Structure formats: structure tokens, C-alpha cells
Amino acid sequence: SRMDVAPLQTAQVDFPISETFFRNALASMEKTYLSKNLTVSSVLDFVRTYDGGQVCYDHFAFRTFNVDNCGISALAQFFLDFGYITRGELSFPGKHLRALWFSPPQHLLDCNGEGVNGPLPRIFISELLVDKLSPESQAIIKKYTSISSGGSKYAALASVLGSLTWPTPLLSDYHRLARESEYAAWTLVNGYALNHLTISVHRLKSDVQKIGKLNELIQSNKFKLNTEGGILKVSPDGRLLQSSTVADSMVFHFAEGISESVPASYIEFAERLVLPEYENLSVDKILELHRRDGFEVGNADKIFESTSAEQLRRKVA
Ligand code: OOG
Ligand code: NI
């Protein structure tokens, strides 16, 4: 009979991961991140309370090393297996980085709900082009990634757990890498941990749905924003507006038995303006797909600095 066929809707059946499993994994990544980054938790609570309850996420971002199968593809597989689509590439030659971004299945970009139960975030994953570093730095990174060849299989699990896939680093290795690439040093001690999640500013309900207002409110409550290139990062087309906090720091227990404070994660804010071709749509008809999509090299280049020693020094000053 007809009841026997097609019990499931099309979108889910082609992919090995169910929506419930996927959202639970995102929730665990978020929980791990919030538990380690108290400023981030405070900012998120503060925005949620001020705005009246519902905060949606624009994107989640991660960092990786492009050696021993530990790069972008290691973590991307989890999202691709749920139906995410690879959308664009960004390149940062000055920082020896490259990034890819991914968008969720179309029907989950404009659904109801908040946080990880709401519209699904885009995913931004960058990787350090390790062969562009000095032989010494390359050797340090490969010492860890070569032990962690399972990196490609367990990256998502590592992010959920908040655990490194490689052995606990030496402080001497951390210091040596930090001199040449702060990104390398960050990734050595944070691994696949969520680097930041981003509040979807235009989806807020109160006056802070304009990012200028939100930045003022955040700062008037003594939270420090990343000032690199100015607080507000604006794409050349003027339609992607971003800002971010300065990262929290955490005490890391290094292999020598020494504990030292290192940069952890931050939170970002993104406002996506309506594209020119949809500007006369009535407000209630505007969907996420009518807005400026994607990322911008010029903005991202400055946002990377949210974990820099220079920005962290400003935070305690
Ligand atoms: C990512 C920085 C770039 C964006 O939205 O353009 C970024 C990072 O710090 O790893 O988040
Ligand atoms: Ni971001």
C-alpha cells in the first residue's frame, strides 16, 4: 500500500547523520566552549537577556593544521555527512592560512528556534599551511600531528569533548611556535575546540539588531572588543558587518608540569544586510537567503587577531 513507501522526507535519507544527532553534537561543542570561556558565556547571557530571549547563530569557526590529514577536511567530513555544502574558499597568504566555508541544508537555514535548535550555522574552517613555516616550526607541529593520524577520523569528537587528539604539548614547543605563528600556537593547545560562535545580529529583536548599537552596549558593560583595524569590520560591498570580543584566556597544563595562561576562544557578532535586489521586500518576507552571504577576507584577517597576544594585553590593561 502507499503507506509502505517513502516514510521519510528526502533531505535526511541521503546522509548518514540524523538531525537529532547533529544538533546534539553542536550542543556539546557549544557546551564545551562555554564552560571554558567565561567571558563568552557572560556576553551570550547578557545579549540573550537584553534582547528578550532568542539568540540565533550565524556560524561556528574552527582552526586546523593542514598536515597528516588533520586539516580542514578532517573536521569538514562531519558537516558534509549531515548535508552541508562546500561554498567558498578564502586565502590569507600573510598568515599562511586558507579557509573554506560551508552552508547547511537550505531548509534548515530559515527554521524556527534558537541557538543550536534554531537555524543552523554556517561553518568556517581554516587551516595553517604548515609547509610555509620554518623547518623548526614544521618539525614541532608534525611531532604532534604524526602521532595523531586519527585526527581525520575523530576531529568532530575532539571538538565535542574539548580534548586534543595529540599528546599534551611542551611549553617550549608552544613558545617556539608562538614566535612565528600565533595561529599555530593557538591550534597546538586548543586543537579542534570551537574557536568562536557568532551571534546572528540581524535576527535579534530589539535595537541591538543593528551591530553599531550592539557594540556600544557590549562595551558599556565593560566587555572588550577586538580593535584590530577598528572595532567594526565592513566588507567592501558594505553588507557584511562583523565584530568580536577579545579571547578569554585559560590556564594550560603543559607536559613539563608547568601551567601557563594561553588564549582560548572568543565570540563574534555578524550583521548581514539585505541584498540590493531584495531591498523592497516587506520585512516579514525577508529570509536569510535574501541577505549578504559568505565571508570576507578583509574582515576575517582582522577577526583572526581576536586571539592575539596584542589584543589579550589590551584586555587586562
Ligand atoms: C577565524 C577568523 C575569521 C570570520 O567570520 O571571518 C572569522 C578565526 O579566528 O579562526 O571568524
Ligand atoms: Ni567568524
Briefly say what this structure is:
Helices cover 36% and strands 19% of the residues. With 317 residues, the chain is of the alpha+beta class.
List the helices and strands and how they pair.
Layout: H1 10-13, H2 19-36, H3 38-51, E1 57-65, H4 72-80, E2 85-92, E3 97-103, E4 122-128, H5 135-147, H6 151-161, H7 171-180, H8 182-190, E5 196-200, H9 211-220, E6 233-234, E7 240-244, E8 249-253, E9 259-263, E10 266-272, H10 297-303, H11 309-316
Parallel strand pairs: 1-4, 5-10
Antiparallel strand pairs: 1-5, 2-3, 3-4, 6-7, 7-10, 8-9
The structure holds 2-oxoadipic acid (OOG) and nickel (II) ion.
Residues 59, 61, 124, 196, 198, 268, 303 line the site of nickel (II) ion.
